[in-house]
Structure formats: structure tokens, C-alpha cells
Design goal:
about 0% strand; mainly alpha; about 75% helix
């Protein structure tokens, strides 16, 4: 389906409600407005993660992983210069052990629930 941009002005009260709803649902205002128009004119239901195209989900996950890796890199680089590599290595080892224990605990609780 081809797309076209539509610009419009709305009363401040409506703009505030759109902003609040978009924030509540963790989507952009543009995505929310597109969804509202699709529901009204195309009879499409709300865009849920189950209905979201897989490529968009994959792109979102890839962006999230990139941001996490970038942040981790900045923090480790900064710590290396302030604390020294040996101390940072100890911190990383402790963090990895804690993370592994947490993942094991989560997986165990999921097995119990199943």
C-alpha cells in the first residue's frame, strides 16, 4: 500500500490526549494516529505485538540490542580509564555471575509454572 503524508492542526486538548495515550502505550504519536485512522477507515484492529509485522519487531529488537551494546561499551571504556582494567575485569566477572544466576532462576521458575 502506498502512503502519503497528511498534516493537520488539532485543538490542544486533543493533542494532549494523543500525546498521553502514545506515551502510555510506548508508541509515537504518528503511529497512534495511523492506527486510529486505520481502525476507522480500514476496520483494522489496534496494532498489537502479535499483529505487528515480524520485520518491524526484528528491527526494534536489533535497535534495542545496538543501544544496549553501545551503552555497555561507553560505560566499560569510561571505567577502564578511571578504575583500571583489573578492577573493571573483576566487576565484569561479578556482573556476569549475577546475571547467569538470575537467568537460571528465571528459567527454573518458568519450568515450575509449566
Amino acid at each position: 500500500m502506498s502512503t502519503r503524508s497528511i498534516s493537520t492542526r488539532v485543538p490542544q486538548e486533543i493533542a494532549d490526549q494523543v500525546a498521553a495515550e502514545a506515551h502510555r502505550r510506548s508508541v509515537t504519536e504518528s503511529d497512534l494516529i495511523r492506527e486510529i485512522l486505520a481502525v476507522h477507515y480500514l476496520g483494522a484492529g489496534p496494532l498489537t505485538p502479535e499483529r505487528q509485522p515480524q520485520s518491524e519487531l526484528a528491527d526494534g529488537y536489533a535497535q534495542l540490542i545496538f543501544e544496549i551494546a553501545k551503552t555497555r561499551s561507553v560505560i566499560l571504556h569510561s571505567l577502564d580509564h578511571t578504575l583500571g582494567a583489573d578492577v573493571v575485569d573483576e566487576i565484569i566477572d561479578a556482573a556476569e555471575q549475577t546475571a547467569a544466576e538470575h537467568v537460571a532462576q528465571v528459567l527454573k521458575s518458568k519450568e515450575i509454572q509449566s
